[in-house]
Design goal:
CATH topology of the largest domain: Aminopeptidase
Shape: globular
Strand content: 25-35%
CATH architecture of the largest domain: 3-Layer(aba) Sandwich
Helix content: 25-40%
Distance between the termini: 46 Å
Length: about 260
Amino acid sequence: MTDTKGLLAAYDEQMRGVPPHPPAGVSHEQDGPLTRTVGQFRGFINAPRDLGVRGTELDELIARQRDYFAARGEAVEWKIRGHDRPADLTDRLRAAGFAAEDEETILIGLTKDMASPPVLPDGVALRRVTEAADMHRIAAMESVIWGQDLSMIGDDLAGRIAAAPDDITVLVAEADGELVSAAWLVVRPGTEFAGLWGGSTLSAWRGRGIYRALVAARAEIAAARGVSYLQVDASDDSAPILRRLGFHAVTTTTPYVWSPSD
């Protein structure tokens, strides 16, 4: 039987901090128990499982983050896990003007169990990409899939590769030169973890095993790097696939976002 409590404890211990190699123009600032990430398309708040503050002190901590990014004219995301404390944190975030986005499931799998040669449908090939032009192709595809402007993904990926090329591997799935899916592996130096991100596929190509192939390919790369665990923030669409592959749900995650227009 898989020790999901142990997996969650490892996640809390190793994955709550910020990556050590931020892209150019991105910085981290400490405010009590929180770490603010500044310089991305929107701000980001990273926090330990238990903030260690309650009541009025917590309200003041939340308000400081909102007001900090309001002064910059930027939105900010506070990432909440389902087991975070205090229990009224989300109520207090909403009272301060933060709004919940879609909940996802945090799944963790053993890298050795996921690594295998990727099996692709006929006519589809995987390719590792590093050029900024390919990152912007990915962003354009993501914008089509999700029906919104996600051009910032291209800048984000290009910035990460420039800052720490050994920490991120970006793969694309192509058919006759058309980009049909993309996904990336992000290794967290100093931990046993790597994250699986992306994996969105054009609607005409879904259900053919491309997502599973991208998981397998990234797991092979992670295994070669000595990574023990793979972590995914999974949507309702991808979570069932990942469970069938052997990933285990350990908690949930919900972005709470404040925007200047709210």
